[in-house]
Amino acid sequence: MKISKALITGVSGFVGSYLAKELLSRDVEVYGLVRRRADGSKPKNLIDKGVSDKVKLLEGDLTDITSLANALDESEPDVIFHLAAQSFVPRSFTHPIETFEVNTIGTANLLEAVRLKDLDSIIVFAGSSEEYGLVISSEKQYERVKQKYGVIFPEPERIPELPIKETNPLRPMSPYAVSKVHGEYIMRNYYHVYGIKTIVSRGFNHEGAGRGIMFVTSQITCQVMQLKFGETDKIVIGNVNAFRDWSHVKDIVNGYILLAEKGKYGEVYNQGSMRTNSVLSYILLSLEQAGWKVEKIETMNGSKIVKNPTERDYSKMFGVKFEKTKADKMMLEEEIEFTLEDKGIWVYTDKGKIPIIFDPKRFRPAEVPILLSDTTKIQELGFKVNYKLEDIIRDQLNYFISPQNRRLI
Ligand code: GDP
Q1: In this structure, are residues 132 and 123 in contact, taking their beta carbons and an 8 Å threshold?
Q2: Which atom of ligand 1 sits closest to the CA of residue 214?
Q3: Which is nearest to 249 in space by CA: 21, 91, 55, 80?
Q4: Per-residue pLDDT for 38 more than 90?
Q5: Rounded mean pLDDT of 160-186?
Q6: Count of CB atoms situated within 10 Å of the CB of 371
Q7: Which helix (H) or strand (E) holds 156?
Q8: Nearest 5°: phi and psi at 154?
Q9: I want to staple 206 with a disulfide (CB 3.0 to 4.6 A). Which of 164, 193, 198, 249 is the partner?
């Protein structure tokens, strides 16, 4: 199937702007849904990609079905990429209803508009790895989380539940994650009930230049560049033990297009890198790419020390071979864990020591400890990972060379 006209909801967002650029380069006519801008200005992400004059912007709001119907009339898309969402997990803890209104009711509105208009459009939905939520990585962790939360439902059928297949249990841990579970179920239901051609992507974390400033990879790379330019003398962060499967946004955007072209309607596909790395490693590797040589880390209370923490390791973990650091391996093997009692970590480098300060406000009431994708299913359609973790970090560091971008923090 060759796409000729696409409508992107959330076109002005981080992923939407990359997707618009990629589709335009493939000669697709691109329409984008944007909320009304009182000052009539163009979205920064589209300007940064050099496509603000090429995307046909349509005003609309997911919570207003009439505006969606109008956007569909104007664009008559053969594919709708439904990316628009309230996508920041911490905001969903403080604004759960807003998150549901946009992500769940908004998704239902879009489907209903397509159904009522009797359109034949394919809809690709941006689900999320957050839907898997509480993934059990070891017997020890299972006991710990059972104590913390009291109940685990469904109970794991295998431990570790890694890498994560599409058939893994869904245990959403935030209103955001719940909203995405609802969104994908309503997508799939519209296929079963009305024959609407929906395809669900469960994207694991994807990053790159222009990633929203509140997400951890931007928080890290922005602060590292502030260090580089002498604008700060520390890195402030939350839970450094969290492991994420970080992809380059460009790989995921290609995956979305592949799903539109070759995905099976009513189906669910993971999109990820089949790597997992810690927040701590993201910091250390960012420091290294920015010019510091990391020699040792030591907690501020002096109780935990790791020498050469960024030494690379390629051993198999959970049956998957991927690049990680020595610190990652130790954390995955539960040899070491960093807690608020540690206060923070000193990073010893060839140019002196840098403090990483743990900020209690950045810790979450409920956390997703680890994500690692199994992408076998989408690979069968031809999906390939082109970017390494270092490529993502490099692009993000370069983005923050601009003082204007550093001021976003
Ligand atoms: P998410 O996986 O969709 O929630 O993406 P984020 O980039 O927001 O967070 C990834 C992980 O980084 C989570 O486990 C957070 O708890 C952890 N983290 C640690 N420090 C921070 C921080 O300062 N900001 C954010 N956003 N996340 C942090």
Answers
A1: no
A2: 26
A3: 21
A4: no
A5: 98
A6: 24
A7: none
A8: -75, 155
A9: 249
Residues 219, 239 contacting (CB under 8 angstroms): no
Phi, psi of 52 (to 5 degrees): -65, -25
pLDDT digits over 256-268, tens only?
999 999 999 999 9
Amino acid in position 45: N
Nearest-angstrom CA–CA distance, 317 and 332: 8
Q: What is the rounded distance in angstroms from the CA atom of residue 112 to the CA atom of residue 121?
A: 13
Given a contact cutoff of 8 angstroms between Cβ atoms, the answer to whether 207 and 215 are in contact is yes
Residue 385: CB atoms within 10 A of its CB come to 18
Give the helix/strand (H/E) hosting 302: none
- 238 Cβ inside 6 Å of ligand 1: yes
**Structural domain 5-212+245-275+369-386, CATH architecture:** 3-Layer(aba) Sandwich (3.40)
- Domain boundaries along the sequence of the chain: 5-212+245-275+369-386
The answer to whether the CB of 338 falls within 8 A of the CB of 240 is: yes
Residue range 223-254, pLDDT digits in tens: 999 999 999 999 999 999 999 999 999 999 99
End-to-end CA distance of the chain: 42
Place of tokens 């923490």: 309
The answer, yes or no, to whether any atom of ligand 1 lies below 6 A from the CB of 244, is yes
Gap from CA of 397 to ligand 1 centroid (Å): 18
Which residue has a Cα nearest atom 17 of ligand 1? 239
Asked if 67 and 61 touch (Cβ cutoff 8 Å), the reply is yes
In this structure, are residues 310 and 260 in contact, taking their beta carbons and an 8 Å threshold? no
- SS3 letters across 54-93: CCEEEECCCCCHHHHHHHHHHHCCCEEEECCCCCCHHHHH
Which structure tokens are listed for 87? Answer: 């996508």
From 216, 240, 408, the mutation candidate for ligand 1 (largest count of ligand atoms within 8 A of CB) is 216
Asked if residues 170 and 185 have their Cβ atoms less than 8 Å apart, the reply is no
Cα distance between residue 339 and residue 74, in whole Å: 53
**Residue 175 one-letter amino acid:** P
CA 216 – ligand 1 centroid, Å: 5
Q: What's the DSSP call for residue 105?
A: I
